[in-house]
Amino acid sequence: MSALIGAAAPDIAAAVAALRAGDLVAFPTETVYGLGADARNPEALRKVYSLKGRPTTHPLILHVGSVDELKYWVADIPPVALKLAGRFWPGPLTLVLPRSSQVSDVLTGGQNTVAIRVPSHPVARALLAAFGGGIAAPSANRYGRVSPTRAVHVREEFFENLLVLEGGDCEVGLESTIVIIVDGTPRLLRPGSISRTEIETVLGQSIEVGAGAGSPRVPGSTAKHYAPQTPLELVGAGTLPTAEATVRARGERVATLACPQGSDPATYGRALYAELRRLDKVGASRILVEAVPESPQWDAVRDRLSRAAAAFL
User: Fold this and answer.
1) Is residue 165 classed as helix, strand or coil in its secondary structure?
2) What is the CATH number of the domain that holds 120?
3) Residue range of the domain that includes 270
4) pLDDT of residue 222
């Protein structure tokens, strides 16, 4: 059984000792809980891939304590990257930048870029400060499944002797926004709580969305991801009662997730993964989820739900 402990100083010290010994530690960030390993230890990084069941060609996100640490991990730091970091770090923004020679192929999935961010959760920051180095940490769940937003989710996911730092419910609840800057031109590769509009406002320019030709692989970019074990189906706005009745008429037990009129995307997103995990346990044969609005404020939620549903198409 995973060891669930609080985040007092002795517990941070225990986590640091585990990381330095090449073991894994789960810890909270403002987005989701991460499965952490010493970013400079290839063997520890391989344990992350193995425990998650994650393809080794899919890069891990590197967490560091401050923008000053970029110079160790990044070969070229463009001015636009510093501008975004200055506005959004610490916070839920990941930058994909050219990697330095010190960075392990295991961390980057064999690519010449590194995905890096500075988290804002106080437990994550305390852990990074005490460890004194970078921590690679994808979401602390089995590959392709629903990300954990509570420590208990991690404990349910992994029964190995994994140390889990308690940090309460994640404030954002959805994975970070990912922006790549490898040729001086920023591109939005994954939507998150930091919107495209916010990024464009800071940069004073429009940015393209989606992977261009030759763009590297980034976390959470596969068509099928973030999925519960129960088949999930998206239905049109306002059609949930009819769709539910149709499924029940076939003799199936159904669970539903509505999007009430006037819902706030931040509040909905914060609760989404915990709700999908709850619905996964009710014994339904299908989860019906009402489509969310098409407005830009809902981009991150809509992205996660479309990938979750794609796992069952």
Assistant:
1) strand
2) 3.90.870.10
3) 232-310
4) 76
